[in-house]
Amino acid sequence: MDPCPFVRLLVGNLALKIPVASKPSRCGVHPVSSPCFCKIKLKNFPQQTAIVPLIPPENQFPDGQQPHTLAASFHLSKADLEKLAGKSIFSWKPCLKIAIYTGRRGTTCGVNSGRLLGRVSVPLDLAGTESRASIFHSGWISVGKDAKGSSVQLHLNVRAEPDPRFVFQFDGEPECSPQVFQIQGNIRQPVFTCKFSFRNSGDRNQLSRSPSSSRSWLSSFGSERERPGRERKGWSVTVHDLSGSPVAVASMVTPFVASPGSDRVSRSNPGAWLILRPGDGTWKPWGRLEAWRERGSNDGLGYRFEVMSDTNGGMSADGIVLAESTLGTGKGGKFVIDMSGSGRSTPASSNSPACSPKSSGDFGYGLWPYCMYRGFVMSSTVEGEGKCSKPTVEVSVQHVNCTEDAAAFVALAAAMDLSMDACRLFSQRLRKELVQHQDLLG
C-alpha cells in the first residue's frame, strides 16, 4: 500500500511579553490582570483560536517552568499545498497570520469582546515539506503595525513536517456492505469488503473464534436492554481482506435506547460499539466507541472513543480516551483522533471537532502514559442525517504496520458513520437496511 503525501503545519510555544506602563493609561494593558488570546489563520482553512500566556518582560522563553504546548495545527494534502503555492510567478508566498487580542474570548451582543493588540505574519515556504521538516520561525517577534519599534513581543514556533497517510474510501454506505478502496492520487484500488449484519442477543459467541473467551469480556463492555420498539441493537460490520478473511469487526454491544419520556439517546445512557481485531485465534477488543444525541440549540451527535488497555496480557474494561466531542447532525463533519497537542483541544470548526489527551510529546511536553499513538492518528468523514454517506478515512502511516491495523480504523469509521443513524430521533424512521424484518412487523 502506497501512502498519500500530507504535511502538518504546527504552531506552538506561544507566549506574550507586554511592558508594564509606568503611568496608568486608558489603553494600557496590565500583563497580569488582562487575559490574552489569538486567532490563527491560514488561507483556505478554518480559523483556530488559542490562549496566549503572559510572562514577565524580564523572563526568557522557554524556561523550565513553561510547558511547551501546541496552539494550532493545519493538515495539508497535496492539493492544499498546490493551492497555497499558486500557479502564478507573481504570487506571494503563503503566510500564517496571527491576530493577538486582550480580554476574554467570545462575543457579547454580536460584538467581539476582545480588543485587538496587534498582528504578526509568518511567511511559509512549503516547497519540499512533503519529504523534509522545515522550521519557519522559532523565537520572539514584535507585534503591531510598527513592528520594529513595538515593545510588545510574541514568542512562537512554526514548523512543518511530513505526515504521509493511507487514504481509504467506502464505495457505498456501511449498511449496504460496500467495498473499500485505497486512494493514491487518481488510482483507486480495492483493499477491503464490508459485511453489514444483525447480531441477535443470543449470538454473542459468534464474535469470537473461541466461544469460552467471548462471554467474559463482552459482559464487561456491553449490556442487554430489552425495550421492544424503543431501541436499535445488534448492528455489526465485519471487514474482510481481499482473500475473504475477516480482519476487523465493529459490533454494537450496547443498544441505542431512547431515554424515558424522550425520543433520543441521552448522554447519560449512550449506545456503544466494540471494535475488535483478530489475535491468538480469537477476537480481541481494541477500542470502544460510545455515541449519544446532544440536547440544546446545537443539536449534535456526541461521541467518545477509547482504546482498551492490555494489562498482564488480558483486556481491561478501563480504556484510555483518545477522542471526545460533537458532530453536527445537519452538516456532519469529521471524526478525528489527533494527538498533536497537549491538553484537550477542539478545532475552531464546529463541524470537525477533536479532542487530544495530555502530553503528546510533539512539542517536547513528555509522553502520554500507556499510549502508542502520537501526532495525527486518523480521521473519517461523517455525513449529516439523511445524506448519502461514503466515508473517506485517513490513517497516519506511523500507525499502520499490517492489514489488521488499517482494517481496525476502517471498522471504527463504519461504526462512527452508523452512529449517526443509531442516534436519530426515535420519531424518525430508519432506512430498510438498518431495520430487522421482525422490527418492521412490530
TrEMBL record:
Biased composition (Basic and acidic residues): 223-234
Region of interest called Disordered, as start-end residue ranges on this chain: 201-234
Record Pfam families: DUF1005 (PF06219)
Annotated InterPro entries: DUF1005 (IPR010410)
Domain of life: Eukaryota
Compositional bias annotation for Low complexity: 208-222
Protein name, entry field: Uncharacterized protein LOC104589117
Organism whose genome encodes this protein: Nelumbo nucifera (Sacred lotus)
The encoding gene: LOC104589117
